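Quick illustration, no need to memorize.
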Amino acid sequence: MKASASCKESMQNCMENQSFAFTHLYNDEKAMDMHIHDCYEIYYSISGGKQFLIDNCFYDIRPGDLFLINQYESHYLSQIDREKHERIIVSIDPEYLKQVSTASTDLDRCFHFRGTEFPHRLHLSPEEQRRFLYYIHRFPDNAGPGEDILDRAVFLELMVFLNRAFDRRCASAAYAQEDNSTVANHEQVDEILSYINSNIQNDLSLDTLSAHFYLSSSYICRIFKAATGTTINKYITAKRITLSKSLLSQGCSVNEVCEACGFNDYSNFLKAFSKAVGVTPKKYAQFNS
């Protein structure tokens, strides 16, 4: 496949042939104004540039940046000035890409999928840059008998390569988001633990904690169990029992300990303490005071 002479010619060839086309440009072509077209576009920067605007999002371009532009997304390259800006643009008919996709391999996923934080731009690693250019440089070498078949084969390899690179970044973004979420959860649990330890004598029901932290009770239970390995009720009870043993050993009465540790109801205190320690609070005080 021979490279098109301009970006406009690449788009025209792509749609007329109902397949794909590419162009390799330098500063000798004036950058197109804001435009929208029916084809997908792969925009790869070799030597960097100034700015790229895609659907009202500005991107500063670096060498090795690759942009995946969906059909009907408005875009244009701005502020080229005199700085050399070498770039490769591949135009692709969306219907053609659907035709060469399979039930298990969606080759246009990299164009139409957009996660909440996932942008149009991929910054290719040095190895990925070499591989991308390798595929592009193979197209002119396919001239001769079987050119169409070889072009199609190289194009399929190129699209599989780009979708794999795209999916790796999606996975990394998802992992980072999950990791950040885990850190945030641990910070919330630390605050909950600090509050419990400072207010052990007060009401620490799930409803009270939920109202204090502006979190649902189910969410508090889930993040607490994930961070500590135990339930929040078991933790509070164990904390109160530990404090009870300490106060009983210091000579406090059973009623004083019951109130100071937040049990309030003596029967609940007696039941919880006897189950955890093996003796009643009164007997524990007799043996340890």
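Residues 205 and 233 are 8 Å apart (CA to CA).
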